[in-house]
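user: can you give me the structure for this one chain? tokens are fine.
assistant: on it. calling the predictor now.
[tool input]
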Amino acid sequence: MTAARASQLPGSVPDGRPATRRSTLLIHNHSHLMNSQTPSNSTPQPSPAAFFRRPLHILALAAALSIPHSASAATYAIQTIGSPSLTGGFALALNNAGEVASTSLVRSFTYSDNSFTSSREIIIPNAATSNPGVVAQGINDLGEVVGRFRTNGNPLNQTSGFILRTNGTLDVFNAPSVASTSISMLNDSGDIVGETRSDLTPFGLIRGFVFKAGTFTEIHMPGADLTRAYGINDSGTIVGHFQNSDAVSRPFVLNAGTFTELSLPNAPGGSASAIAFSISDNGSILGTYRDSTSVTRTWVRLPDGSYQYPDLPGSGRAINDAGQITGSYLDPANANIRTAYLATPIPEPASILLMATSAAVLLRRNRRSPV
């Protein structure tokens, strides 16, 4: 474990805040499909007091819901996001509602339906129309989207951060005293993380940052040559990666100002380098690693500290509390076009059986006991 405190940097304006500007977001609608369903709630429900007089089915139901889920042995339902040729083949952003944002690294899109067929493009005036253009990289549970964009005519490594608000406006974010800014994620409190570049030369310093309550703080692993911050959850825990002089990527967790380097025990194929991209509100961390044959694989660190290695197409990028994962892969059935997907874990048969048994016990006692 390496411990260090993150250092605060001075702002570029009198109150210490980075320079920002606000503009109205322009949205192009590519479809007007919207499916809405209202669940029926006509079945009488037992009172809370009656329910808690029944310890048997409480214990059975709790046991069913607390079975550990093994991602390494899990089966996932894979759902394609959007159209790769139109809405891009990368899905870097996922929230707890299963909402995603996709990107081609030139254009980016949000969706208004669970089938990911109704897309809205994020339009930033005067953004570049070549890579990188507008790149959506994170979405919180409020539906706010963050990322980076390059102004038309600017160098390839000079970008600004953006925050797309739910009211349709766009905040442009530039960190103080640096040449380039990118936002990777924001939590529901509005805390944002990302990275900066000190200058546009090949030797420009790359550092992570967190912007919280109007204060900009640099994130840098002590002694490292490079540090990037990719994810932050509602508890304020941050994940990312750093590189030393050997240029090997190593994942870290930053909690309450203390860095912890992560290792990947028993990673299939061995781990030559690794990155932490995402952390859910319940503490699950997702990242990728490069094995000894240079194949990129996905890893997940569960809240209890154990590691799992999901067998997914391509590689994962973000995880939510339900264990859903976004990622991308080269689709061999479609000329190896980069394709974005959402992977939803399917409960194992043993879990389904125990949950069904618990439901049956609950139903029998409801029939025998007055409410």
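assistant: here you go. The chain has one domain: 23-29+69-368. The helical segments are 48-52, 55-65, 84-87, 349-368.
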